[in-house]
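task queued by scheduler; priority normal; single chain, no ligands, no partner chains; default sampling; output format set to structure tokens
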Amino acid sequence: MNSLRLLPVSTASLLLGTLLFLPASLAGSLASSLAYPSNPPHPRLAQAQPQQMPVLGVVKSRENASQWQAITERLDASGLAYQVIDWRDVQRSADFGDVTVLFLPNLATISSDQLLGLQAWLNRGGGLIVSGAVGSQSSAGVQNALRSLLGAYWATDLSQPQSILPLQLASQRWVRQVEADNMAGSITGGVLVPTSLASQPVAVWNQAETAQSGVSNSAAVVVTQKTTFLGWRWGDASASLSEFDQSWLRAAVSRFGNLSPLLAAPVSRPVRATAPAPVAVSPAPTRPRPAQPAPAASQ
């Protein structure tokens, strides 16, 4: 009797046989899934993390000490969390701590060391907001450096209070956060002059009012990628209304809302004193001794 010989059966043959004996509906579904395998399941999306709020630091100095009560009242009313930085304690980048957005309200004096620390802090990824005639009482070298750093400078005071007109710029949508009701009033400020191609005015003084004083298209707010320059003395009750200041500061801080954590400040290591290398000293040359006379022969 001949023994049965089992032939090797491929996986494809088994699948084909299975399809022949399945109901039409199930066979069609199985064939479709085999012919067009579904995409691998998308990895589960992580829950959306809340946007990290910037850490706001507000500088207190002797120049804004007389306005400090009004400044703090407006800061508290704005709803922004902030920490106070004593300007006298700032000499280097690390003195700003974990602050990601720094606000300098009406700071007239900046030393060269403070300027270097501010530049280093910006290079680490910080965002800067200033108001008033910043650095106007500093040395000429610091003032020139500030013009480059801020992208603008305070050229002159306006002769009379005027209103501000925000510009509708697609690249500066944060300006739209300033409430329209806070634009109606007039404030006392100054003309800002942009200093580079990277400087962009986002608000101007009312042309109808500035034309009477001989100034047209004068900038009231100028920004760069890392800085926002407000052309009035923020927190000065005689210059602007509280709601106006609050609205502009909230909008200015919001444009830095996507800042990454700052890079760590470089740590200066003390230079270790090393002992001087020993100096090879050549031995002093020896003088040859004079030859001793031979003793006389005895007779």
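post-processing summary
- The two ends are 146 Å apart (CA to CA).
- The chain has a mean pLDDT of 78.
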